[in-house]
Design a protein that fits this description.
Blueprint (H helix, E strand, L loop, with lengths): L2 E4 L3 E5 L5 H8 L2 H4 L10 H17 L4 E6 L5 E8 L9 E8 L8 H15 L5 E6 L4 H9 L3 E7 L5 E8 L2
Parallel strand pairs: 5-6
Antiparallel strand pairs: 1-2, 2-3, 3-4, 4-5, 6-8, 7-8
């Protein structure tokens, strides 16, 4: 279980093949996926593919989507990571993604893990710029982005033609 980093309350580690069920508990929840991609929950098969791609990304890029674990009880509470995006310009840019299960909302955990992931991306992966693509109606993620230093850049349509706010933060 390759640990990537720890925060005060969380452990962040690489996803593993046996995380599919835990990740699916997030990606299949309509409330959690409302602002992700096309807003639809993912199938079990697509979630398994996501884990496979994430494992490969850690080998080839040094980063990917990661498991977020509650230090208190070892529970899998969501995901956070750095991924390629249609709005990022490889190899020095990536997109921050995250989602936590609803019982963990409103405790500052998203801010805590997102800030640590940005630091990891800039300091350990050499990223020059990290973006966050946020649905204009997702006020919680906009607050997180602003709290950790992201700056609004522009609004563009995503691959589904939906308006997407692009936020950016420069690396070191």
């Amino acid at each position: 279980m390759p640990l990537i980093f720890e925060t005060k309350r969380l452990q962040v580690r690489q996803l593993q093949t046996d995380d599919v069920d835990n990740l699916y508990s997030v990606t299949s929840d309509p409330e959690l996926t409302r602002y992700m991609d096309n807003g639809q929950p993912l199938s079990y098969e697509l979630t398994a593919k996501w884990v496979e791609v994430s494992i490969n990304n850690y080998v080839t890029k040094g980063y990917g989507c990661s498991a977020v674990i509650d230090k208190r009880d070892g529970a899998f509470i969501g995901f956070c990571g750095l991924v390629r995006s249609e709005f990022a310009e490889p190899p020095h840019d990536a997109e921050l993604i995250y989602a936590l299960k609803k019982p963990y909302w409103g405790q500052g955990l998203a801010t805590e893990v997102a800030k640590a992931m940005v630091d990891y991306g800039c300091e350990s992966c050499g990223l020059k710029r990290i973006i966050a693509t946020i649905d204009p109606e997702n006020s919680a993620s906009i607050k997180v982005a602003n709290k950790i230093g992201f700056v609004f850049s522009r609004t563009e349509p995503d691959s589904d033609g939906l308006p997407t706010h692009i936020y950016e933060i420069a690396g070191q």
